[in-house]
Amino acid sequence: MLVLAVLFSLTASAQVNIWEGERGHKKVEMTPYLAPGDKSIAVIVCPGGSYFWHDMKTEGDAVGRWLQSHGISAFVLRYRTAYVPAFLFHYRYIFRGNRYPDPQDDLRQAIRYVKRHHREYGIDSLHVGAMGFSAGGHLVMSAAEYFERADKPSFVAPIYPVVTMTADCVHKRSRRALLGESRLHNRQLLDSLSLERHVPVDCPPVFLVNCKDDPVVDYRNSVLLDSALTAQHVPHRYIQYARGGHGFGASSEKGCAECREWKKEFIQWFQTIASSW
To answer: Is 213 exposed, middle or buried (0-12, 13-18, 19+ CB in 10 A)?
Structure first.
């Protein structure tokens, strides 16, 4: 009965429109998974999907419930992506569609929304982190590098992230989705979105995970980021598993037993950095 009670308590609150009341923006939704008590640490969760779509099940809702079960309030963000029609038809040669910086604008607004509603949600307004998977990992890491201090996440957890837009190990589908076809050869934009090149000295703490056998996003993306973080003396933890592939998120079935250990490792890391706040 206790197990059932715990399971039933792990529920999502009603979705919210983060741009409500803001002129010129379409509806972008976020689903809260609130931990009990006051002053919970909040994490914005950004599912992957190559910046074309979202894996809302494994890298969204499952992550929200898992964090909630550990006393961390999660907010699963359905940020703007290029979407399937842009994947199938290259219409963004002519029409803008969704592209950079739309996802980054959504994440910034999500952080602001959560901080603004911190009393309603019972969270600590001073410490809002971000966790992202695959392309979502690129998104949260770009926030750590480029957002103004007031909007930067307190920590980021890029899980098997897309990192580079210029190196040989680039994930081409994510690059195409984020930039749009008309800007694929914009060298300045390609450079600025290659995150291994722009890690700042004031980057927040980073928890980085990937698998060497990842068949989707080349494992060297994370190696590049780890090297850049090390060079800038940014506090971070990098775990590279030998096996596990890609897209396992918070699943208890996908990947393998080895890579699913990342969840336990993250909680331990999170508790260490949170103890200093």
So the answer is: middle
